[in-house]
Records
---
Amino acid sequence: MTQQQPAAAPGQHMTAEIAEQPEVFAALLARRPEIAAVAERVTARRPRFALLAARGSSDHAALYAKYLIEVLLELPAGLVSPSTTTLYGAEPDLTDVLLVSVSQSGGSPDLLEVTESARRRGALTVAVTNTPGSPLERAAELSIDIGAGREQAVAATKTYSASLLALYLLIDAIHGGSGARAASLPELARSTLDSSVDAVEEAVQRYRFVSRMVTTGRGYSSATAAEAALKLAETSYLSARAYSGADLLHGPVAAVDEQTGVLAVCSEGRGGAALREVLDVVHERGADICAVGSAAGKVSAAQRIDLPACAEEVAPVLEILPVQRLSLGLALARGGDPDHPRGLNKITRTR
């Protein structure tokens, strides 16, 4: 008689996968020469601008890459709307364009179609995925395996942060960098996960009954704010909306009051500095602000999750770690299972 295996505890997989991230970062950094080889081929083609194609969490990684490309490479960059290809059949001339497609599974039909179409129209295509041999990897001219290993929880954690780091290493190498600013990330990630436990738990207790949240950041941290809103919505079923700090005062602040939780991502650097004035206004409106980042102590906030300082352009790799833990904790406190959010699958197939 076959003995039945005990059911996995709620959040078991997400908990384990969050904890794996320092090792994932170390393994990815060890493979930097492979990424640098892809960067050499991109540099040789001298792209005139870049496009990024992605969905879901990968779309937020693409937003991060957009900032990197525009700031470090000083190239114009844009996020692709896949439906212009898949639904409307648009075929612009993409000669000398770099198209980077980011997909953890490498199996999204719309991203596959966009990549195939772009390659036919002259683009240099690069797939960034966690699935070697995936259809997307085969469709692209070049590819990068983020190497995060199998992810069992529906909510992306290690695959998201590994995508950020892989994109940074690629763009930094195109820029002529050595990856030095990312070298300490495994150690800093361990420190972040260890040192933020108590502050995250305090935040869980503070926000477990909140019904809506706003997340915000500036610059590179805009991607973290966007991913934070998605994590809170998909794991805790919160009504969560992300805004750039630059946009928050242009109307959305009218909906912020004493019943609103605000998750503000603010690390040392120009983005964090630009967010301070915005948070002063939000604080005056009575919103309950939780600040996350290496500059959390410098902004108006009721709750702070301080992180170790690092170069601003790699801060999103660390910022997302306590946010993932917060999403996990809130989901469990509210009686959910973040490994299996209702109505969601690991791979979403859209066209």
---
Amino acid sequence: MPKCTTRSITGAEVSQPHLFSQHKIWTKPFIVAVFVVSVLGIVSLFTGVYDIHGQEDGWNMFFITRVPRTAALMLTGAAMSMSGLVTQLITQNRMVEPTTTGTIEWAGLGLVFVYLIFPAPPLMLRMTGAILFSFIGTMIFFFFLRKVKLRSSLIVPVIGMMLGAVISAISTFIGLVFQMTQSIETWFVGSFAPVQIGRYEYLWLIVIVNIFIFIYADRLTLAGLGEDVATSLGVNYNKIVLLGTGLISVAVGIVAAVIGNLPFLGLIVPNIVSMYRGDDLKSNLPWVCVLGMGAITLCDLLSRTIIMPFEVPVSLILGTVGAVIFIVILLKQRKRR
């Protein structure tokens, strides 16, 4: 398909890369990627301070902590990477993801309000609050982009991070006033250390979210071409954007409630995949999920071993690496323009 240029919701002209479908998923490179991620998963199962071989209850601890942690890594990596990919398609901007649109900060604000109303809320209630506020915050961000015409698409993530900073400040203020600082700090430091059996099972809902995204992948891809093009091709643009926003909010809300804040993962992986494979969501989704799993598992392995026997929050490593890659992508975009 020839290269096409459309007007994004930011008001700036965005040049869309080649849109093409690669119907074959199980290609040799993809099989290699799955194999590498599987190896990382096995390494994760046997990495940790607790000696599962030398202790009597070693294998019990293996299934109580190691297996849930590895499963949570895989599901979270798929969720955040997939959310970033869908967000980039809807906004027609490669620089956005839940971290740079304020979605994750809105999820944190939802958790704060849940803790404010219910002193000891169950995980299901925390997750519901995070999902609702994620949806509200994402829709506010989209509404803002529709109303304000920006000359450069590079300004969009900056605006999103500014809005996120405001929401984060509000969450911190509420936490200080109502003495909820500890709960907020736990959320800001995204870590898989507390994950164990009975505390991660809601992450399996991410599989359902991925299935819905795969079903509506073609429509979401058309929505990524802009409202005029999507409407001319028979797609209800507003409806599909609302659906995509809802799916993103569910995934981000679940991760925020169970794990915490995981920055930049949804920015790095989709950009790398789109750079080599174009913008077809259906063919890119398996790649994005697998590479997202591998990236977060690798970061978690570093977090567990870099100062062993202590553990660095995985969000610290993701934030450091992601910020560097984000700056590199910004510079490349500016140079191209």
---
Amino acid sequence: MKALVKEKAEPGLWLVDVPEPEIGPGDVLIKVLRTGICGTDLHIRSWDGWARQTIRTPLVAGHEFVGEVVETGRAVTDIQAGDLVSGEGHLVCGKCRNCLAGRRHLCRATVGLGVGRDGAFAEYVALPATNVWVHRVPVDLDVAAIFDPFGNAVHTALSFPLVGEDVLITGAGPIGLMAAAVARHAGARHVVITDVSADRLELARKIGVSLALDVRESTVADGQRTLGLREGFDIGLEMSGSPVAMRDMIANMTHGGRIAMLGLPAEEFAVDWSRIVTSMITIKGVYGREMFETWYAMTVLLEGGLDLAPVITGRHGYRDHEAAFADAVSGTGGKVILDWTA
């Protein structure tokens, strides 16, 4: 089969022939239809410091996908050939304290699809049945392909109650944009998003945010004044990993404000801990999705009319992967999809 492989310890991904994956008794073999390109895939392709420390070559990359089940192991009873599925990309041990307590998203032995084992940038991918999400209701294939990052957005956005709250989102990348859509859909009063990309801020306006701020030209405090907020933001969703963005968020939260932080900083940085303490601000780190509570929430949100179409801005056949990655790395658009049937 064809697959995008990190063959060598150097920049690049290579489209090559590899053997089809084999499945065990509890596994599912899936024919991949669409995949999404993630920031993690960009790190692997560029072979940056994180990738050099994390990835063992050769490796089939990719973890955001939708596909059709073609074969199931003999122990699999609730998934059938022909089912349309996406996959939870965090494979857990099932034996640690958190796994046994039903908190699988906190497993210390998590292995990432397309990071610690061969992934979904291929014509076929194998997964344990326990990591397979069957789409029981109709869903657009492009949207189904990005359930993984959509789950990050939902997990972050729904970390705290949103109804009637004023929400600040720092970072209008694809996950930040999806979080903005979720916050609006979930009943937030105002949703403000910040970035330095005019194109991404325009996407945010299409999603329906209250205010899209280019922080090169306006401050978060300016945004507060524009909306008539007297005491600051109730909820913060930090999606950028930027030290400046995090400090601005803390400075503009109301007393008792709550921050969910998904953006991963490249290095340690200082924040105003006195402000955090005296304003009694809660900061919660978020990683991945709650398995599978977040997946249920994603499906219900889409059934309820949440529209993610504006977030998907690039579509390419898998043989045109170089153009697709160039599109994704530009930092000006939303999600980029690879079609494995083209």
